[in-house]
Design brief:
By secondary structure, the protein is an alpha/beta fold. The chain has 13 helices and 11 strands. The strands form 3 sheets. It has a 7-stranded parallel β-sheet with strand order 8-7-6-9-10-1-11. A two-stranded antiparallel sheet has the order 2-3.
Length: 359
Protein backbone atom coordinates (compact mmCIF):
# COMPACT_ATOMS: atom_id res chain seq x y z
CA UNK A 1 0.00 0.00 0.00
CA UNK A 2 1.22 3.50 -0.80
CA UNK A 3 0.46 6.82 0.83
CA UNK A 4 -1.45 9.87 -0.28
CA UNK A 5 -0.47 13.15 1.37
CA UNK A 6 -3.29 15.68 1.52
CA UNK A 7 -3.11 19.44 1.98
CA UNK A 8 -6.32 21.09 3.12
CA UNK A 9 -7.05 24.63 1.94
CA UNK A 10 -10.18 26.31 3.36
CA UNK A 11 -12.77 26.83 0.59
CA UNK A 12 -14.43 30.16 -0.14
CA UNK A 13 -18.09 30.80 -0.90
CA UNK A 14 -18.78 30.55 -4.61
CA UNK A 15 -21.82 30.54 -6.88
CA UNK A 16 -23.55 27.19 -7.27
CA UNK A 17 -22.56 24.90 -10.13
CA UNK A 18 -25.93 25.54 -11.75
CA UNK A 19 -25.32 29.30 -11.69
CA UNK A 20 -21.87 28.80 -13.18
CA UNK A 21 -23.23 26.52 -15.88
CA UNK A 22 -25.80 29.11 -16.89
CA UNK A 23 -23.12 31.80 -17.11
CA UNK A 24 -20.68 29.74 -19.15
CA UNK A 25 -23.03 27.95 -21.51
CA UNK A 26 -23.50 28.95 -25.14
CA UNK A 27 -27.10 30.12 -25.09
CA UNK A 28 -27.29 29.75 -28.88
CA UNK A 29 -27.22 25.97 -28.47
CA UNK A 30 -30.62 24.30 -28.02
CA UNK A 31 -31.27 23.32 -24.43
CA UNK A 32 -31.86 19.73 -25.56
CA UNK A 33 -28.37 19.65 -27.13
CA UNK A 34 -26.75 20.98 -23.98
CA UNK A 35 -28.58 18.48 -21.80
CA UNK A 36 -27.60 15.61 -24.10
CA UNK A 37 -23.93 16.60 -23.99
CA UNK A 38 -23.97 16.71 -20.18
CA UNK A 39 -25.86 13.43 -20.01
CA UNK A 40 -23.43 11.72 -22.40
CA UNK A 41 -20.36 12.90 -20.48
CA UNK A 42 -21.86 11.85 -17.14
CA UNK A 43 -22.79 8.44 -18.56
CA UNK A 44 -19.23 7.86 -19.81
CA UNK A 45 -17.84 8.94 -16.47
CA UNK A 46 -20.21 6.70 -14.50
CA UNK A 47 -19.35 3.76 -16.79
CA UNK A 48 -15.66 4.14 -15.93
CA UNK A 49 -14.56 5.21 -19.42
CA UNK A 50 -10.99 6.58 -19.18
CA UNK A 51 -11.06 10.26 -20.13
CA UNK A 52 -7.30 10.23 -20.65
CA UNK A 53 -5.13 7.44 -22.04
CA UNK A 54 -1.39 7.20 -22.51
CA UNK A 55 -1.87 6.60 -26.25
CA UNK A 56 -4.12 9.63 -26.75
CA UNK A 57 -1.71 11.90 -24.88
CA UNK A 58 1.24 10.55 -26.84
CA UNK A 59 -0.61 11.03 -30.15
CA UNK A 60 -1.20 14.73 -29.49
CA UNK A 61 2.36 15.15 -28.24
CA UNK A 62 3.82 13.65 -31.42
CA UNK A 63 1.82 16.16 -33.44
CA UNK A 64 3.06 19.03 -31.26
CA UNK A 65 6.64 17.92 -31.95
CA UNK A 66 6.00 18.04 -35.70
CA UNK A 67 5.61 20.82 -38.25
CA UNK A 68 3.97 23.78 -36.51
CA UNK A 69 3.97 26.23 -39.39
CA UNK A 70 0.86 28.24 -40.14
CA UNK A 71 -1.66 26.36 -42.20
CA UNK A 72 -1.03 23.06 -40.40
CA UNK A 73 -3.52 21.45 -38.04
CA UNK A 74 -3.43 19.30 -34.92
CA UNK A 75 -6.17 16.67 -34.70
CA UNK A 76 -7.51 15.46 -31.36
CA UNK A 77 -9.99 12.62 -30.91
CA UNK A 78 -12.87 13.55 -28.61
CA UNK A 79 -14.48 11.23 -26.10
CA UNK A 80 -17.24 10.63 -28.66
CA UNK A 81 -14.69 9.39 -31.20
CA UNK A 82 -15.00 12.46 -33.42
CA UNK A 83 -11.78 14.22 -34.49
CA UNK A 84 -11.45 17.92 -33.67
CA UNK A 85 -9.00 19.91 -35.80
CA UNK A 86 -7.10 22.91 -34.44
CA UNK A 87 -5.39 25.35 -36.79
CA UNK A 88 -1.77 26.28 -36.06
CA UNK A 89 -1.47 30.04 -35.63
CA UNK A 90 2.20 30.44 -34.68
CA UNK A 91 3.35 33.91 -35.70
CA UNK A 92 -0.11 35.49 -35.76
CA UNK A 93 -0.32 38.89 -34.11
CA UNK A 94 -2.68 38.96 -31.14
CA UNK A 95 -5.44 41.50 -30.66
CA UNK A 96 -3.99 44.87 -29.73
CA UNK A 97 -3.50 45.20 -25.96
CA UNK A 98 -4.16 48.83 -25.05
CA UNK A 99 -2.19 48.44 -21.81
CA UNK A 100 1.05 47.85 -23.70
CA UNK A 101 3.33 50.56 -25.15
CA UNK A 102 2.69 51.36 -28.82
CA UNK A 103 5.95 49.69 -29.91
CA UNK A 104 5.09 46.35 -28.26
CA UNK A 105 2.85 43.69 -29.78
CA UNK A 106 1.71 40.26 -28.68
CA UNK A 107 2.17 37.26 -30.94
CA UNK A 108 1.24 33.56 -30.89
CA UNK A 109 4.41 31.56 -30.22
CA UNK A 110 3.64 27.99 -29.17
CA UNK A 111 0.63 25.65 -29.16
CA UNK A 112 0.06 23.48 -26.10
CA UNK A 113 -2.49 21.10 -24.59
CA UNK A 114 -5.31 22.50 -22.49
CA UNK A 115 -6.43 19.52 -20.40
CA UNK A 116 -10.11 19.52 -19.45
CA UNK A 117 -11.61 17.63 -16.50
CA UNK A 118 -14.92 15.79 -16.61
CA UNK A 119 -16.42 18.43 -14.33
CA UNK A 120 -15.24 21.18 -16.67
CA UNK A 121 -16.74 19.40 -19.69
CA UNK A 122 -20.12 19.18 -17.99
CA UNK A 123 -20.03 22.80 -16.84
CA UNK A 124 -18.51 24.87 -19.65
CA UNK A 125 -20.24 24.07 -22.94
CA UNK A 126 -19.22 26.66 -25.52
CA UNK A 127 -19.72 24.74 -28.76
CA UNK A 128 -20.76 21.36 -30.10
CA UNK A 129 -17.43 21.06 -31.93
CA UNK A 130 -15.37 20.87 -28.75
CA UNK A 131 -18.04 19.59 -26.37
CA UNK A 132 -16.50 16.11 -26.01
CA UNK A 133 -12.86 17.10 -26.49
CA UNK A 134 -10.87 17.03 -23.23
CA UNK A 135 -7.46 17.81 -24.74
CA UNK A 136 -7.86 21.10 -26.52
CA UNK A 137 -5.12 22.99 -28.30
CA UNK A 138 -4.44 26.58 -27.34
CA UNK A 139 -1.34 28.77 -27.65
CA UNK A 140 1.12 30.79 -25.62
CA UNK A 141 1.35 34.51 -26.28
CA UNK A 142 4.61 36.48 -26.04
CA UNK A 143 5.51 40.16 -26.27
CA UNK A 144 7.89 41.42 -28.92
CA UNK A 145 9.13 44.67 -30.38
CA UNK A 146 6.76 45.69 -33.17
CA UNK A 147 9.65 46.87 -35.39
CA UNK A 148 12.60 44.56 -34.66
CA UNK A 149 10.41 41.52 -33.89
CA UNK A 150 12.70 40.69 -30.98
CA UNK A 151 10.94 39.01 -28.05
CA UNK A 152 10.88 40.84 -24.73
CA UNK A 153 11.55 38.70 -21.67
CA UNK A 154 13.64 39.90 -18.74
CA UNK A 155 16.40 37.42 -17.94
CA UNK A 156 17.44 37.48 -14.27
CA UNK A 157 20.99 36.99 -13.09
CA UNK A 158 21.94 33.33 -12.88
CA UNK A 159 23.97 33.94 -9.72
CA UNK A 160 21.08 35.70 -7.97
CA UNK A 161 18.61 32.91 -8.76
CA UNK A 162 21.01 30.12 -7.77
CA UNK A 163 21.91 31.84 -4.49
CA UNK A 164 18.25 32.46 -3.61
CA UNK A 165 17.30 28.88 -4.42
CA UNK A 166 20.16 27.48 -2.36
CA UNK A 167 19.05 29.61 0.60
CA UNK A 168 15.44 28.48 0.16
CA UNK A 169 16.53 24.83 0.23
CA UNK A 170 18.47 25.38 3.45
CA UNK A 171 15.48 27.08 5.07
CA UNK A 172 13.20 24.23 4.00
CA UNK A 173 15.51 21.53 5.34
CA UNK A 174 15.51 23.12 8.80
CA UNK A 175 11.77 23.89 8.78
CA UNK A 176 9.24 22.18 11.03
CA UNK A 177 7.28 21.05 7.97
CA UNK A 178 10.28 19.24 6.50
CA UNK A 179 11.21 17.64 9.81
CA UNK A 180 7.62 16.49 10.38
CA UNK A 181 7.49 15.01 6.91
CA UNK A 182 10.71 13.09 7.42
CA UNK A 183 9.43 11.84 10.77
CA UNK A 184 6.12 10.73 9.21
CA UNK A 185 7.89 8.87 6.41
CA UNK A 186 10.28 7.16 8.81
CA UNK A 187 7.36 5.74 10.81
CA UNK A 188 5.39 4.48 7.82
CA UNK A 189 5.25 0.81 6.95
CA UNK A 190 5.52 0.10 3.25
CA UNK A 191 4.49 -2.99 1.32
CA UNK A 192 7.55 -5.25 0.85
CA UNK A 193 7.08 -5.20 -2.93
CA UNK A 194 6.90 -1.40 -3.16
CA UNK A 195 9.59 -0.10 -5.50
CA UNK A 196 10.35 3.54 -6.33
CA UNK A 197 12.54 4.51 -9.26
CA UNK A 198 11.48 8.07 -9.98
CA UNK A 199 9.70 11.17 -8.73
CA UNK A 200 7.61 13.19 -11.18
CA UNK A 201 6.32 16.59 -10.10
CA UNK A 202 3.80 18.77 -11.90
CA UNK A 203 3.14 22.52 -11.87
CA UNK A 204 5.58 23.54 -9.15
CA UNK A 205 6.08 26.94 -10.79
CA UNK A 206 9.12 28.59 -12.30
CA UNK A 207 11.97 29.51 -9.99
CA UNK A 208 13.00 32.55 -12.01
CA UNK A 209 9.57 34.22 -12.16
CA UNK A 210 10.01 36.43 -9.11
CA UNK A 211 13.37 37.70 -10.37
CA UNK A 212 12.17 38.26 -13.96
CA UNK A 213 9.25 40.50 -13.08
CA UNK A 214 8.75 42.67 -10.00
CA UNK A 215 11.09 41.24 -7.32
CA UNK A 216 9.34 43.05 -4.47
CA UNK A 217 5.78 42.16 -5.45
CA UNK A 218 4.04 40.48 -2.49
CA UNK A 219 2.17 37.92 -4.57
CA UNK A 220 5.41 37.18 -6.43
CA UNK A 221 7.13 36.51 -3.10
CA UNK A 222 4.32 34.18 -2.08
CA UNK A 223 4.59 32.28 -5.34
CA UNK A 224 8.35 32.04 -4.84
CA UNK A 225 8.01 30.66 -1.30
CA UNK A 226 5.48 28.04 -2.38
CA UNK A 227 7.38 27.12 -5.52
CA UNK A 228 10.73 26.76 -3.77
CA UNK A 229 9.10 24.65 -1.02
CA UNK A 230 7.65 22.26 -3.60
CA UNK A 231 10.97 21.97 -5.40
CA UNK A 232 12.73 21.34 -2.09
CA UNK A 233 10.14 18.69 -1.24
CA UNK A 234 11.30 16.66 -4.23
CA UNK A 235 14.90 16.59 -3.03
CA UNK A 236 13.80 15.64 0.49
CA UNK A 237 11.72 12.76 -0.83
CA UNK A 238 14.57 11.57 -3.02
CA UNK A 239 16.70 11.14 0.12
CA UNK A 240 13.97 9.91 2.46
CA UNK A 241 12.67 7.26 0.05
CA UNK A 242 16.05 6.09 -1.25
CA UNK A 243 15.74 2.80 0.65
CA UNK A 244 12.79 1.89 -1.58
CA UNK A 245 14.76 2.06 -4.83
CA UNK A 246 15.64 -1.65 -4.34
CA UNK A 247 18.60 -1.61 -6.72
CA UNK A 248 20.88 0.81 -4.85
CA UNK A 249 20.28 3.33 -7.61
CA UNK A 250 19.44 6.98 -7.00
CA UNK A 251 15.79 7.86 -7.49
CA UNK A 252 15.43 9.96 -10.64
CA UNK A 253 13.66 13.32 -10.36
CA UNK A 254 11.57 14.89 -13.13
CA UNK A 255 9.54 18.10 -13.18
CA UNK A 256 6.98 19.26 -15.72
CA UNK A 257 5.83 22.86 -15.85
CA UNK A 258 5.32 24.82 -19.09
CA UNK A 259 6.53 28.00 -17.37
CA UNK A 260 10.10 26.70 -16.92
CA UNK A 261 12.79 28.77 -18.61
CA UNK A 262 16.27 27.59 -19.69
CA UNK A 263 17.61 29.12 -16.46
CA UNK A 264 15.10 27.12 -14.38
CA UNK A 265 16.33 23.96 -16.08
CA UNK A 266 19.95 24.96 -15.47
CA UNK A 267 19.41 25.59 -11.76
CA UNK A 268 17.44 22.37 -11.21
CA UNK A 269 19.95 20.31 -13.19
CA UNK A 270 22.61 21.22 -10.62
CA UNK A 271 20.52 19.28 -8.07
CA UNK A 272 19.95 16.31 -10.37
CA UNK A 273 16.42 17.31 -11.39
CA UNK A 274 15.40 16.97 -15.04
CA UNK A 275 12.79 19.37 -16.45
CA UNK A 276 10.36 17.96 -19.00
CA UNK A 277 8.11 19.45 -21.64
CA UNK A 278 4.38 18.81 -21.40
CA UNK A 279 3.23 16.02 -21.63
CA UNK A 280 6.49 14.13 -21.11
CA UNK A 281 5.92 14.04 -17.35
CA UNK A 282 2.66 12.14 -17.75
CA UNK A 283 4.30 9.69 -20.15
CA UNK A 284 7.04 9.03 -17.56
CA UNK A 285 4.57 7.95 -14.87
CA UNK A 286 4.36 4.24 -14.01
CA UNK A 287 3.80 2.07 -10.94
CA UNK A 288 7.26 2.87 -9.55
CA UNK A 289 6.65 6.63 -9.59
CA UNK A 290 6.07 9.12 -6.77
CA UNK A 291 3.75 11.94 -7.88
CA UNK A 292 3.94 15.51 -6.54
CA UNK A 293 1.25 17.99 -7.51
CA UNK A 294 -0.04 20.92 -5.45
CA UNK A 295 -2.73 23.26 -6.80
CA UNK A 296 -2.04 22.75 -10.53
CA UNK A 297 -4.15 24.49 -13.19
CA UNK A 298 -4.74 21.23 -15.07
CA UNK A 299 -6.56 18.04 -13.92
CA UNK A 300 -3.44 16.13 -12.84
CA UNK A 301 -5.41 13.81 -10.56
CA UNK A 302 -7.79 12.68 -13.31
CA UNK A 303 -4.97 12.12 -15.78
CA UNK A 304 -2.85 10.11 -13.33
CA UNK A 305 -5.77 7.94 -12.16
CA UNK A 306 -6.66 7.13 -15.77
CA UNK A 307 -3.16 6.21 -16.98
CA UNK A 308 -1.29 4.68 -14.03
CA UNK A 309 -1.24 3.37 -10.48
CA UNK A 310 1.72 5.23 -8.94
CA UNK A 311 3.68 4.00 -5.95
CA UNK A 312 2.84 7.14 -3.97
CA UNK A 313 1.14 10.51 -4.46
CA UNK A 314 1.74 13.82 -2.72
CA UNK A 315 -1.03 16.19 -3.74
CA UNK A 316 -3.47 18.74 -2.42
CA UNK A 317 -7.00 17.72 -1.55
CA UNK A 318 -9.82 20.25 -1.66
CA UNK A 319 -12.89 19.67 0.48
CA UNK A 320 -15.82 21.22 -1.39
CA UNK A 321 -19.24 22.32 -0.34
CA UNK A 322 -21.89 20.37 -2.29
CA UNK A 323 -22.31 23.24 -4.73
CA UNK A 324 -18.72 24.48 -4.70
CA UNK A 325 -16.67 26.02 -7.43
CA UNK A 326 -15.36 24.10 -10.42
CA UNK A 327 -11.65 23.56 -9.81
CA UNK A 328 -9.06 22.89 -12.47
CA UNK A 329 -7.85 19.79 -10.57
CA UNK A 330 -10.94 18.45 -8.79
CA UNK A 331 -11.01 15.36 -6.60
CA UNK A 332 -13.93 13.60 -8.27
CA UNK A 333 -15.83 10.53 -7.01
CA UNK A 334 -13.78 8.33 -9.33
CA UNK A 335 -10.55 9.67 -7.85
CA UNK A 336 -11.78 9.24 -4.29
CA UNK A 337 -12.77 5.63 -5.01
CA UNK A 338 -9.36 4.98 -6.59
CA UNK A 339 -7.60 6.35 -3.53
CA UNK A 340 -9.67 4.52 -0.92
CA UNK A 341 -9.37 1.25 -2.85
CA UNK A 342 -5.64 1.22 -3.50
CA UNK A 343 -3.97 3.55 -0.99
CA UNK A 344 -3.66 4.48 2.64
CA UNK A 345 -3.63 8.13 3.60
CA UNK A 346 -1.52 10.53 5.64
CA UNK A 347 -1.60 14.30 5.93
CA UNK A 348 0.96 17.04 6.37
CA UNK A 349 0.83 20.82 5.86
CA UNK A 350 2.53 22.33 2.84
CA UNK A 351 1.71 25.92 1.90
CA UNK A 352 0.50 26.25 -1.68
CA UNK A 353 -1.27 29.01 -3.54
CA UNK A 354 -4.81 27.96 -4.20
CA UNK A 355 -6.89 29.03 -7.17
CA UNK A 356 -8.73 31.40 -4.83
CA UNK A 357 -5.54 33.22 -3.85
CA UNK A 358 -4.51 33.70 -7.48
CA UNK A 359 -7.62 35.73 -8.26
Amino acid sequence: MAATIKVYIPPEDYPSLEEIRKSYTNHHLPKATINKIRSDIQAMYDAGVPFFTRDSIRDVYEQLKGDLRQGRTISVRGLDGVMVDYDIKVGDAWTRNEDLPENIEEVVVKPYIFYVSAEYLRTYIFSEREAYCNMRITSDIAERDRTTKEFIKPVPSSDIVKSAFKQALEQWESSETCLNLQSTLSKMTFHPDLKITKIVAFACGEITGRFSDAPNDELGKLFWENSSAQHALILTLQKSLSHLSKANQAIQCFMQDPSYTPLDSEVLAEYGVNTLNDPEGFLEVDDTTVIISCAPDIPVKEIIVDIARPAMMFWDFYEHKPEGRVHTDPCSPRIKKFLTTHYQESEFPLAVISEEQEE
